[in-house]
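Input structure tokens:
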């Protein structure tokens, strides 16, 4: 492992190593520095590996601290306010504290809506059935939980409603308290936990959903870049069904992750926490690129005929050009800089299209089986569509880089604090 000189100097300073005399010759300093470096080599390696690990685990560690602080602070405030069931407030604070500010906002709003709806409905059922007998309590519990569960299956923000309704009904029954009083206590406890969870998400290690979306998009582009090389080789050697499924599932998982994080980023944009552009165009562009790779994968199910391969061999660098552009675009997203140029990849695609035109002019596809002909023309269509989709990707990366410069120059204190978090 090669270690830069400035890393050695920093490692030596942190280890408390002896300073190099300033009035001795350069030879003595070089010898002393080499001896110190050799002695500290294992420690410096561990230090740099630990630093790299912390950089990769920035988001999980930030969530760890936010959830822990939210739970502890909520418990102390609930105890100070003499809440009867502080566990409800603590659980709410844990639930609403998410990976990003946008996720915390949306989760807290959904949880509050479900809690208030469940409290109102549970109170009405509790007043109607009362607590005179066990049968009435069981019937009331069924009436309180069943309909809300059906509603929650189609409305995500109602997931907490059946839990709250059951809690209000059983609390009023077991403690012989008023259903209205139990509902008010439940809503207040949840509101306290939600407020603290959102506040901690803003104050302690705030993480912007756009940073997470940039990482997810870069990961998807990396998967696409790996697939580009494998699929182009598959056109020559053939690609098995298992390999094709493995490639497509990896791309699909990465795009799905971007879809989840992009929803949180859109919420941040809507409420004005981030001036970044809408994440929808980036997601749709990656979905279209994935569809292009699906078509190429089907074309690579078996090797192309040798006559076709011979015509396309001079243009076989198209897979490398596509992979390089996709990787460079992912790196540009993480670094918040302008996207790479389109000249190389468009030149490679144009050259490959010229080889396909030559195959058509020579009539080499007329003697192919119908299935092979369909797969070959699917390949042609996918590469033509990919040219347009790569241009759209270039525009999306440029738009995200432009929004980052706007955010960096913005003077708003909340926007600057939330959106200036670097890539995890």
């Amino acid at each position: 492992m090669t270690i830069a000189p400035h890393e050695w100097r920093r490692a030596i300073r942190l280890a408390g190593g002896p300073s190099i005399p300033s009035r001795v010759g350069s030879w003595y300093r070089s010898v002393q520095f080499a001896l110190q470096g050799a002695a500290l080599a294992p420690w410096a390696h561990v230090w740099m590996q630990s630093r790299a690990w912390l950089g990769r685990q920035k988001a999980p560690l930030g969530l760890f601290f936010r959830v822990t602080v939210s739970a502890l602070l909520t418990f102390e405030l609930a105890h100070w306010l003499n809440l009867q069931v502080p566990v409800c407030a603590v659980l709410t604070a844990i639930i609403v504290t998410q990976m990003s500010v946008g996720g915390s906002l949306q989760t807290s709003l959904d949880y509050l809506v479900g809690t208030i709806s469940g409290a109102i409905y549970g109170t009405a059922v509790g007043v109607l059935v009362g607590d005179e007998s066990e049968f009435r309590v069981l019937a009331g519990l069924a009436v309180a939980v069943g309909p809300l569960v059906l509603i929650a299956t189609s409305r995500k923000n109602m997931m907490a409603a059946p839990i709250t309704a059951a809690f209000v009904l059983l609390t009023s029954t077991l403690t012989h308290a008023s259903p209205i009083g139990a509902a008010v206590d439940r809503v207040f406890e949840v509101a306290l936990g939600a407020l603290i969870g959102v506040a901690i998400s803003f104050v302690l290690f705030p993480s912007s959903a756009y940073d997470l979306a940039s990482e997810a998009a870069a990961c998807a582009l990396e998967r696409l870049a790996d697939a580009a090389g494998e699929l182009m080789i598959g056109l020559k050697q053939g690609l098995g069904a298992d390999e094709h499924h493995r490639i497509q599932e990896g791309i699909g998982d990465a795009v799905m992750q971007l879809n989840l994080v992009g929803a949180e980023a859109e919420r941040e944009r809507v409420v004005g926490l981030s001036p970044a552009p809408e994440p929808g165009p980036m997601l749709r562009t990656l979905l279209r690129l994935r569809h292009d790779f699906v078509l190429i994968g089907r074309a690579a199910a078996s090797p192309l005929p040798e006559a076709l391969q011979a015509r396309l061999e001079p243009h076989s660098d198209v897979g490398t050009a596509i992979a390089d552009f996709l990787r460079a675009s992912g790196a540009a997203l993480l670094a918040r800089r302008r996207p790479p140029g389109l000249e190389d990849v468009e030149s490679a695609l144009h050259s490959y299209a010229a080889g396909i035109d030559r195959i058509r002019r020579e009539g080499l596809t007329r003697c192919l089986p119908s299935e092979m002909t369909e797969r070959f023309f699917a390949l042609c269509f996918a590469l033509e569509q990919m040219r347009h989709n790569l241009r759209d990707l270039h525009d999306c990366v440029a738009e995200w880089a432009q929004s980052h410069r706007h955010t960096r120059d913005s003077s708003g204190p909340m926007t600057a604090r939330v959106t200036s978090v670097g890539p995890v």
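The longest helix spans residues 370-409. The domain at 209-419 is CATH 1.20.58 (Methane Monooxygenase Hydroxylase; Chain G, domain 1).
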